[in-house]
Amino acid sequence: MILNDDKWIGTSSGMTVLHSSNAVTNYTIMYMLPPPDTLSPVVDLAVDGLGRIWTTIYVGYMGVGGVAFWDGSFWVSFDVSNGLAGQNIRGLDTQGLNKAWVATEFGCRHKALH
């Protein structure tokens, strides 16, 4: 995903940003998973209408996942306690709007953005 000339790459170990300045930033914890996992494996990426990068995180063997967006300084995360339909995160889409649609094993719900 390219955002402001930076390349955002999701991996099984988190997120890597290749900046246009050739600097590299790695984020390994965008969503807090239960032990023993500490890394946030990325399932999907999207950019919302406010220019924020969103990512879905899911660990298959644990059956646990969530969603997070980068607010420019910190990762803000959401899970079933914030209204996601389920923990098995399957996909994400913002359609460039100010809401994120998150697909789970129990269906799709959106999170309105502020």
Describe, in plain words, how this protein is organized in 3D.
There is one protein chain. The protein has 114 residues and is an all-beta fold. It has strands at 2-3, 6-11, 14-18, 24-27, 42-47, 53-59, 64-70, 75-78, 89-93, 99-104, 107-112. The chain has no helices and 11 strands. The protein has a 4-stranded antiparallel β-sheet with strand order 1-2-3-4, with no helix packed on it. It starts with a strand and ends with a strand. The model has no long low-confidence stretch (mean pLDDT 88).
Which terms would index this structure?
114 residues, mainly beta, four-stranded antiparallel β-sheet, single chain, Thrombin, subunit H
Which overall shape is indicated by the principal axes computed on the Cα atoms? globular
Tally of DSSP β-strands:
11
The major sheet is characterized as: 4 strands, antiparallel
User: What proportion strand?
Assistant: over 45%
Broad structural category:
mainly beta
**Low-confidence runs of at least 5 consecutive residues:** none
SSE run: EEEEEEEEEEE
Estimate the helix proportion, in percent. Answer: under 10%
CATH topology, by name, is: Thrombin, subunit H
Reading off the top of the CATH hierarchy, the class is best stated as Mainly Beta
